[in-house]
Design brief:
Blueprint (H helix, E strand, L loop, with lengths): L1 E2 L12 E2 L19 H5 L14 H19 L8 H10 L4 H13 L4 H9 L1 H10 L8 H10 L3 H18 L14 H20 L4 H10 L4 H19 L5 H11 L7 H18 L12 E3 L2 E2 L4 E2 L4 E12 L10 E8 L2 E5 L9 E6 L4 E4 L7 E5 L3 E6 L3 H16 L10 H11 L14 H28 L3 H13 L20 E5 L5 E2 L8 E9 L16 H8 L86 H9 L7 E2 H8 L15 H4 L15 E2 L14 E2 L2 E2 L1 E2 L3 E5 L2 E5 L7 H11 L5 H14 L9 E11 L4 H19 L11 E3 L4 E5 L4 E3 H6 L8 H10 L5 H23 L10 E4 L4 E3 L25 H7 L5 H19 L1 H12 L9 H4 L3 H9 L9 H12 L3 H14 L4
Parallel strand pairs: 2-16
Antiparallel strand pairs: 1-2, 3-6, 4-5, 6-7, 6-12, 7-8, 8-9, 10-11, 11-12, 13-15, 14-15, 15-23, 17-20, 18-19, 21-22, 21-23, 23-25, 24-25, 26-27, 27-28
Helix pairs in contact: 2-3, 3-4, 3-30, 4-7, 6-7, 6-8, 7-8, 7-9, 7-11, 8-9, 9-16, 10-11, 16-17, 26-27, 26-28, 27-29, 29-33
Length: about 1050
Amino acid sequence: MAVSVERNNNMTAVQTTQIESPAGAAPAIKPTNSNNPAKKQQPQPSYAKQQPSASPATRKHEEFKNQLVHDVFGRDNKGRVPMEKVTMLIWQFRDDPAVVQFMAQFVARFSGSRSTYDGIEFYLPQIAHMIIHLEADWDEAILERFALVIAQQSQHFALQLTWILEGAIEDYQPETVEGKPNPGYNQLFYHRCITLLSNIERCVVYGSPRSMELQRMYEKGDISRDEYEQMKLEDRLNNAKQITTHGANFRNLMQRMKDTKISLPDLKLERKKGREKESATAASSPTSAPSDPGSPTIMTATSNDKGKQISKYGYGGTLLYKRRARTALYKPKRWKSRYFEIEERMLYCYNFQPSYGGQLRRAMPLEGATVEEFEGKYPFMFVVRNHHFEYIIRAKSEKDMSLWIRLLRGESEANALIPHILSTDEMFQEKKVTGEDETKRSSPNTLTPSQAARYEFFRNERDFVAAVCDVAEVLRFREPSDRKKVAPGLVSDIKLPPCGYVPLCKSTDIWRRVDSVMASETRVFNTNERCPMIYYFIAKRGEPVGGTLEPRNPNLDVAEYLHTLFKVPDLENRRLTSIGEHADELQLGDSGDDSDDKDKGEVKVEEQDEDYDEFELTMEDPTERQNSVWSEDSKSSKSFLSSSMREIKGNQQFREFMQERQESFAKLPSKIATRMTRPDGRAQSKRGGRMSYLDRNSAPLLNVPIIDTPIIENANDDDYDSAADSLSLDGQSIISAGTGSIVFGDTVKKFEHHDGVSKESLDRAKAVVCGGESWAEQSARMLQSAKNEGEEKDSSTLHEMVTMMAKSNDDLRQEVFVMQMIHYFESVFAKANIPVWLKTYRILSTSKSTGMLEFLTDATSIDSLYKSDKFPKVGGLRAYFEEVYGSPTSKCFLAAQRNFIRSLAGYSLVAYLLGLKDRHNGNIMIDTRGHIIHIDFGFAFGMAPGHEWSMERAPFKLTKDYIDVMGGPFSEGFKEFQKLFVDGLKAARSNSLNALGLVEIMMYKSNYPCFSGTRYGGGVSLKRFEKRLMLAVPDNKVEIKARKLIKTSIDHAGTKLYDVFQFHSNGYAY
């Protein structure tokens, strides 16, 4: 139904399409359905009249959503897509797929901007969480397609999403890796994660099919820059749509096998007999088991607990099998009789046939799996294995085994862009039957060289990361006294990929290829439950990419490097076809006549508007961006709007987006259009039930640009050799995003921060904190040692040390989220010009029990500092500061004291706001410049060791030792700390909506310990978070409340008691 919206508030009417959305909208915490057919038949009320039934809270919520829409589409965001507000928009309109689809397409349009892409990656945990849980009931895989579009732009993004999905798969799979039933098993979410995981891999392997053709057309001047960007995006959208189309491949396989007369069982007859037998049995006894469960059948699997069909037709039958999972769990197992079924590249295992009530016991993705005959004690055995699982299976006969192997191999080789027809074995069998020369045709499943290269990179990087974490898992089962001896050998055995990197970065961070590992330098930490490890890798920068003759760039980012390396898509047998959202299939390998017929794949370039400026194409050399995946942010403001779209009001990005899609799929949803034209909010919301503060609030969300690690360029101390200040490679100045050293030829360049702490003081501090050697010195020594030993013979590239920590037997996903929140609040404080200091470091969860962390250099725990032989025997931290940094009136001491105060204020704020607990001295660090750093966020949002019996009752940790460093409770230093805390709390309150939204999204069907269970689930943690933000406190009383929190925390009895407890239980000094 077309809706005409009147002009109002400087917004002009837009033709929109009314798209029906579900009548019932989910509340913030517990979604409910309130579908009422009578309501759907009622006419849409006038937007000019307010619904009398709308409560004040509902009206405020509508005003909030209106303001949210206006801030994204109406306000000038200076060419930046505010991803924090876009994420909130998707969450607020999660009940309306039309709005979610529009927002996903809008963000995809501007994902070529680095700032937008950084925002997408920053909010990836929320986006992935919504992909898995929100749209499971939607007809369209909207957010999934959006993720696939973004993944085509950066393989790093695809890897990050892959690791999130692997953790979710472990959450929802039928059994744990130990082989026990999984209490959190959810068939719907499990199947969705498996499907998306396979789709991402296909997306990476097959890439954007038309990228090179479009680039060539652009370079020739056949299409303009705007047309090039638009057609490239639509290519990715169409590619994502093709990948998410399921259900037909297996049936195509069956039909092709029949058509080519391969000597296989008559599947049609088997299916008919099986169904007749099932019908007869079900009619007589619906609960009885099948009389012949071994008969192959084609059937549909249904989730009994969810009541949802999750697959199409598949091939099934009863087999004997043994299962193995992970090396440490290889144990002799008995043969079991189970019903197996192949469905859409998955191998499902049921206790018996699901049509008779069989329950799913386990499942295995077949994408890329290995299927081989197995010679053993019994006949007709074969093995199916992938990265995590291995099944040894026995068939009834050789014929049955041959059929299963062919079908399994066919599904392992299948892909969505070129629908699977025959596996390699089937092609060979067809050649024998038909007599066709194999050289005259190629299998549609054969990867081209560039596809194979992308596949190898994606697989090798995942295997490399898994191997790094697996060493920590292997050491966990060794005696603590042997771990340090065994570790170097295990590290040396890790297979380094030819193009691998440490993925603790963003797509826009500098590319560093892992070239070798310093196994002898490996460090091992012994704890009761796990064995964390520190790795030291030698990485290279500024290498030639592919065979290009272009100048080498030592500052090339991850996305650009991978794009340049894998960009050639083997064009010999392909030609450009029409690009459109509704294209049904890709024309790959077309050898037909290359005519001008528009229906046969010619690109149609739209006629230019009479006001279009043709000079725009010549303003910049088109080849300048040919190796870049990024478009300049400023380019969006140079687009020319057609006369029909000039009257649309809104920011420049929105107007460009609507112009590009005025004749395609992106009609403006009515819920967006009405809020753009009436930002005061008159529409009635259908939300019912209880609402969180985020739903009740009507205040606008403030823009919070996420700050990044500052770039250090030519940042040598005066005491160091300044000859390296002009160090460059092919004219590119060398930069770094952190401290450390770079070796280039015979030159060593050190990168270190400047904050007023002298080199002499740093020398004294590093003797206590880091064993007398700073990270810049240590990395330079290791690089020089590797060069002297002959391991690094290439003097034409940059060599740099990359260090990281690997963990196993530890779920880091909650820590990833807490660090995201700390990073968010760091950005809030920076925007408000509050000079607090926080150290945000990278954390990557690669599964439910493994992960990687950025290693904090030039720092040690307070526990280790207190235990150091060089720590003062009396006087505590104050005496240490005076001994290391000089007299209390010296410039160096005041600089270190300032660092301490600002970092203490920052971490006191986030510890209070996020409810961080378990704050013993092993989880608090101090660096050589006096900064306090908190680590290990396993207890957050009020979750504490001991739960209700927790000793940590203080708002945050503020010991007498800390106050002494600041100068005492009446000193200027303590007054500065109080001011920073008060100002920071006020800034957090002003920017609370984004923070509440992030928490609320991750709470939804969450498995995080801090959001689940009777103590913290059901919205309890969110309510406590709202209370800590003091949202109900009047503004004029916030400072009083904040100062009361400080007073309560000073040398709190619970803090001292917890430190004593940790000393006696774990030996942490206090």
